[in-house]
Design goal:
The structure holds 2 protein chains of 2 kinds. Chain A is an alpha/beta fold. Chain A is built from 7 helices and 10 strands. Helix content of chain A is 37%, strand content 28%. Chain A has a 6-stranded mixed sheet, sandwiched between helices. In chain A, a hairpin with a 2-residue loop joins β9 and β10. In chain A, α3 packs across α4, α4 crosses α5 and α5 runs parallel beside α6. In chain B, the strands form 3 sheets. A 6-stranded mixed beta barrel of chain B has the order 3-4-9-6-8-7, surrounded by 4 helices. The longest helix of chain B has 40 residues. The two termini of chain B are 29 Å apart. The chains are: A alpha/beta, B alpha+beta. The interface between A and B is medium-sized, with 26 and 21 residues.
Chain lengths: 225, 406
C-alpha cells in the first residue's frame, strides 16, 4: 500500500542570482514498511527532496500525497500539526532538546499530541527499551554518546506513531560501531513494527542495509532499485 | 504547558553565569529603585504628616476666607455646630484658631508677624509647640503672653520678659493695639515660621481683635482618623452650609504637594534611566538565548511544535529571569528598609541645615508602603515581558529551513 505518492515534483530556488532547480520533476511512490535510502552526491537535491516530503519546504510544482492527503494544500500551521501526527524526523546532528532528559525528549512529542502523562511515560519507556536505552532514561543528551543520542532521536520519531520516518543522514556523525548498532536497530524496528524508514545518505553501510535505493542527481531520479 | 515551564526554567541554567549576571543586574536595579522610592516617599510622608499636623486634615472658615484672608472674614464660634461636627464618627478633635497679620514693635524696630491665637493645651498636644521652646516657657491657659519665633526675637533683639507692642486691624473696622510680654522663644523646623509666627492665648487675641463679643475665630482645624478624610470632608461640607467653607489640607498645602509632585517626577526620570539600562540587560540575555537556539527552534517546529508554544517558552524565560531578580531584590531590600523605617536617620550639620532650608525636619525617613514594592516589581516584570517581544517576533518570522541548513 502506497503511503507516499509524489508526482512531478519541482523545487526551484529563485532567491539566488541564478534560479536553482533543486528538485526537477521527481515522481515516486513509497509503500508502507519500506526501508529506503535516497542517495546522491552533494548538491544532488536529496535533502531538498526530503524536506519537501517532510512538509518543511513547499514545492514549486507537483504534488506530495501522504496517506492520500496532498500536503501542498496545507497552510503552515496545518503543516506543523500534520508533521506532528504523521511524520517522524531523525536529524544528522540528533537535535534533541538539550535541557530535557532522554525520556522527556521522547515524551515531549506525545505531550504536543495531547497524550495523557501516564500513557506517554509508559510509551516513552517502552520505546527507550526498544532502542536499547533502558537505564538511560534520566540522562540528558549531553550525558549520552552520539550513538545513544541518535537512538533517543529514533525513539522520539517513533513516539508520535508516524506514518513514516524521515532520516537525514542519520549516521553522518556516528562511528562505525554506533552506525552498525543504529542501523540494526532501525532495521529491526522496520521489521517488527512495519515502520517505513526513508534515509538520505552518503553512507555505504546504510545503502547496504536498505532494501530500496533511490539515486538522485541534478534533482532527478536517476535510478530506483 | 508544564513541559514548557520546565524547559524555560532549565534553559535559563544552560548558561548559569549569564543568568546570574542578568539576575544580578535586576537585583541591583530593584534595590536601588526601592531605596530611592522608599526614601522619596518616606520624606513625602513626613512632610505631609508634619503639614497636616499643623493645619489639620481640613479647616472650617467663613466662606471666602481662604482666598482672601482678612480679619473681616472671621466668624463667631458656634458651639452647636462644633458639637455636631466633633460627634461625627472619625473626627478626632478640633482646634479653633484666630489668626491675623499685625505689626509688632520693640525699641526702634518693627516687624510684621502672623499672630495666632490658640488654645494652649489642646494646640500643644497636637503641634508640640512646648517642645520647640528654646528659652522661656510655653503659654499657660489665660496667660497674656507671647511665644515668638527665634528669628523674630533675633531681629527685634527682644528677650524673655520684654514687652512687645502689637498693632493691627481689629474686626469690623476696629483697631487692635496691645502690649504683651514675651514668655517663650521657639525654634521651628520651618525658617518661615521662625520669622513669622507669634502664638498667644486664643481668648487674649479675641479680646484684642474684637473686645465687644467673645468667640471670634478665623478657622477651626479638624483632625480625623486616617482614611476617612474624603468622606468626612463632604459630610462636614454638607453640615456647615453655605456660610462656611471646608478646605482640605490638599488645598492648604498645595505648594508642598506641587513640590512633592515635581520631586517625584524627577525621581521617576532617574528610575526610567535606570530601568532602561536594566531592560537592555534583560534584552541582551533574551536575545542571546533566542539566537543561539535557532537550530533548536527549527527542530522543535519541524517535529510538530507550534510557534505559539515556542513563544510561550520564551516569555516564561524572560519572566523567570526577572522573577529571580525581583525575589532576590525584595529579600535583600525589605529587611533593610523595614529597619530604616523604624529607625529613620536624623541629619546633623550641613545636611540638617539643608533639610531645614526646604522647611523639612532634618530626618531621612523611609516608607514601606506596599505600593512601592509592588510597583517596582511590576515595572521589572513588565520590562521582562517587553524584552520577550523580540523572541515573539523572531519565532513568528522564523524560517525553519534556513535554520536547519545552518
Amino acid at each position: 500500500m502506497s503511503i507516499i505518492q509524489i508526482n512531478n515534483l519541482h523545487k526551484t530556488y529563485t532567491d539566488t542570482k541564478v534560479p536553482v532547480k533543486a528538485v526537477n520533476g521527481i515522481s515516486l511512490s513509497i509503500e508502507e514498511g519500506e526501508f529506503t535510502a535516497i542517495v546522491g552526491p552533494s548538491g544532488s537535491g536529496k535533502t531538498t527532496f526530503l524536506n519537501l516530503m517532510g512538509g518543511l519546504d513547499t514545492p514549486t510544482e507537483g504534488d506530495i500525497l501522504i496517506g492520500g492527503k496532498n500536503i501542498k494544500d496545507l497552510n503552515s500551521r496545518q503543516l506543523i500539526d500534520f508533521r506532528l501526527h504523521h511524520i517522524g524526523f531523525v536529524f544528522q546532528s540528533y537535535n534533541l532538546i538539550p535541557v530535557l532528559t532522554a525520556i522527556e525528549n521522547v515524551a515531549f512529542i506525545m505531550e504536543l499530541q495531547g497524550i495523557p502523562k501516564k500513557e506517554r511515560h509508559q510509551i516513552a519507556m517502552e520505546l527507550l527499551k526498544k532502542t536499547g536505552l533502558e537505564g538511560k532514561e534520566n540522562y540528558r543528551p549531553g550525558e549520552l554518546s552520539g550513538g545513544q543520542q541518535q537512538r533517543v532521536s529514533v525513539a522520539r520519531a517513533l513516539a508520535s506513531k508516524p506514518k513514516f520516518i524521515l532520516a537525514d543522514e542519520p549516521t553522518a556523525n556516528l562511528d562505525s560501531a554506533s552506525t552498525e548498532d543504529l542501523l540494526n536497530m532501525m532495521a529491526e524496528l522496520n521489521k517488527s513494527e512495519n515502520m517505513t524508514f526513508i534515509f538520505s545518505t552518503h553512507d555505504k553501510r546504510v545503502m547496504d542495509k536498505a532494501r530500496r535505493i533511490v539515486t538522485i542527481d541534478d534533482g532527478k531520479v536517476v535510478s530506483d532499485v | 504547558m508544564k513541559i514548557l515551564f520546565i524547559m524555560a526554567w532549565r534553559n535559563l541554567w544552560r548558561n548559569k553565569r549569564r543568568t546570574y549576571i542578568t539576575a544580578t543586574s535586576v537585583v541591583l536595579a530593584l534595590v536601588l529603585a526601592l531605596f530611592m522610592r522608599s526614601m522619596q516617599f518616606g520624606s513625602y510622608e513626613t512632610m505631609i504628616r508634619a503639614g497636616v499636623n499643623e493645619v489639620g486634615n481640613m479647616q472650617i472658615h467663613d466662606t471666602g476666607y481662604w482666598d482672601n484672608k482678612t480679619i473681616d472674614r472671621a466668624f463667631f464660634t458656634n458651639p452647636e455646630l462644633e458639637q455636631k461636627i466633633s460627634s461625627l464618627p472619625g473626627v478626632l478633635h478640633m482646634l479653633p484658631h484666630l489668626e491675623t497679620f499685625v505689626l509688632t514693635s520693640y525699641g526702634d524696630k518693627t516687624k510684621g508677624v502672623q499672630l495666632v491665637g490658640v488654645n494652649p493645651e489642646a494646640e500643644d498636644l497636637q503641634v508640640n509647640i512646648s517642645g520647640k521652646i528654646t528659652s522661656g516657657s510655653y503659654l499657660k491657659k489665660g496667660q497674656a503672653g507671647l511665644v515668638i519665633g527665634d528669628k523674630i526675637a533675633e531681629y527685634l533683639n527682644i528677650n524673655i520678659g520684654d514687652s512687645l507692642v502689637v498693632m493691627g486691624q481689629g474686626y469690623e473696622g476696629t483697631t487692635a493695639v496691645g502690649i504683651y510680654p514675651v514668655t517663650g522663644i521657639a525654634h521651628y523646623v520651618s525658617p518661615q515660621m521662625n520669622n513669622l509666627i507669634v502664638y498667644m492665648n486664643l481668648e487674649t487675641l479675641q479680646k484684642l481683635i474684637f473686645p465687644f463679643k467673645p468667640g471670634l475665630l478665623t478657622g477651626i482645624s479638624v483632625y480625623c482618623e486616617p482614611g476617612l478624610e474624603d468622606q468626612l470632608l463632604s459630610t462636614i461640607k454638607a453640615s456647615v452650609g453655605d456660610h462656611f467653607e471646608v478646605i482640605s489640607w490638599k488645598v492648604m498645602l498645595s505648594d508642598m504637594l506641587q513640590s512633592i509632585k515635581l520631586d517625584n517626577l524627577s525621581g521617576m526620570v532617574m528610575l526610567m534611566i535606570l530601568y532602561i539600562i536594566v531592560a537592555f540587560g534583560i534584552f541582551s540575555t533574551v536575545l542571546m538565548m533566542t539566537v543561539e537556539r535557532r537550530r533548536q527552534f527549527a527542530v522543535m517546529i519541524s517535529i510538530g511544535m507550534r510557534k505559539g508554544k515556542l513563544v510561550i517558552t520564551s516569555i516564561f524565560e524572560s519572566i523567570f529571569i526577572a522573577l529571580i531578580g525581583v525575589v532576590a531584590g525584595l529579600i535583600l531590600t525589605t529587611p533593610a528598609l523595614m529597619y530604616l523605617y523604624l529607625n529613620p536617620i536624623r541629619m546633623t550639620g550641613e545636611m540638617a541645615a539643608m533639610y531645614e532650608s526646604f522647611n523639612q525636619e532634618p530626618l531621612m525617613a523611609f516608607s514601606i508602603a506596599p505600593s512601592i514594592f509592588f510597583s517596582q516589581s511590576l515595572i521589572v516584570l513588565s520590562l521582562a515581558l517587553l524584552s520577550a517581544l523580540y523572541p515573539i517576533f523572531y519565532v513568528l518570522r522564523f524560517n525553519v529551513l534556513n535554520a536547519l541548513r545552518q
